[in-house]
Write a structure and sequence with these properties.
Layout lengths: L1 E5 L3 H11 L7 E5 L2 H10 L4 E5 L7 H11 L4 E6 L3 H10 L3 E5 L3 H16 L6 E4 L2 E4 L4 E4 L2 E4 L2 H12 L5 E2 H9 L9 H13 L7 E5 L3 E5 L3
Parallel strand pairs: 1-2, 1-3, 3-4, 4-5
Antiparallel strand pairs: 6-7, 7-8, 8-9, 10-12, 11-12
Helix pairs in contact: 2-3, 4-8, 6-7, 6-8
GO biological process, one term: regulation of DNA-templated transcription
Keywords: DNA-binding, Phosphoprotein, Transcription, Transcription regulation, Two-component regulatory system
Pfam families: Response_reg, Trans_reg_C
């Protein structure tokens, strides 16, 4: 397994490395101290797990997460000293899978990371879907509406895939949350899911009839494909 750690503090890197080596003694770890260097590695190399500190010296950790999911979809863990509820919600909205406040409990970190990797093993190849003039290429996070390309984040990609699977019918909040966040669900109050839907809607071409309709108290449905 290959892990990219984007962390500026050496003591935290040591703690992460020693923790990861307990379940994965042969783990290969690449450490970056800035967001810029982290993105450079992601562009040219393949990793199985990302661990990202939100407090980066050269950019917002949130901006880094958003950029990561334009390149690929991999298990992503966010860490921060004195992590707040707002940090967790925003990280989940942007595509992170797990959040830990530093210092973290090693046993909890290991258990949740192992579960996270198991969840991703079933999502790695969703393939492509086509409905009318809408095409979704899940492997590269791209949708095509009337020939116009739309770049998707990891969560938007999974959201679109789930809605297309159930086109024209209501897809429940819980069903979508499981598709995106696995059995752990989203933020617990649909706020992360609503934020993801809102951002995806904004990416649709203005002249397109494609719409995501909110069924209040129930879920969402995708309509308007010709």
């Amino acid at each position: 397994m290959r892990v990219l750690i984007v962390e500026n503090f050496q003591d935290d890197v040591i703690a992460l490395v020693s923790t990861l080596k307990i379940p994965w003694p042969e783990v290969e770890i690449t450490r970056c101290t800035s967001g810029t260097s982290g993105l450079a590695f992601i562009e040219k190399e393949q990793f199985d797990l990302f661990v990202i500190d939100l407090d980066l010296p050269d950019m917002s950790g949130f901006d880094f997460i958003e950029s990561v999911f334009l390149y690929c979809s991999k298990p992503t863990i966010v860490i921060r000293k004195n992590l707040t509820g707002a940090d967790i919600v925003r990280s989940l909205q942007l595509g992170a899978d797990e959040c830990f406040s530093k210092p973290f409990d090693p046993l909890s970190f290991i258990a949740k990371t192992q579960a996270l990797i198991r969840r991703y093993s079933g999502k790695s190849q969703l393939g492509s879907m086509v409905i009318g003039k809408l095409r979704l290429d899940t492997d590269i996070h791209r949708a095509y509406v009337d020939g116009q390309e739309i770049a998707l984040t990891r969560n938007e990609n999974l959201l679109m895939h789930r809605l297309m699977q159930n086109y024209g019918q209501v897809t429940s909040y819980s069903s979508i949350e499981r598709a995106i966040w696995g059995n752990f669900g989203g933020s617990g109050n649909n706020s992360a899911l609503r934020g993801c839907v809102k951002r995806l809607k904004k990416k649709f071409p203005q002249d397109s009839s494609l719409r995501i309709v909110t069924e209040h108290g129930t879920g969402f449905k995708l309509v308007g494909i010709h």
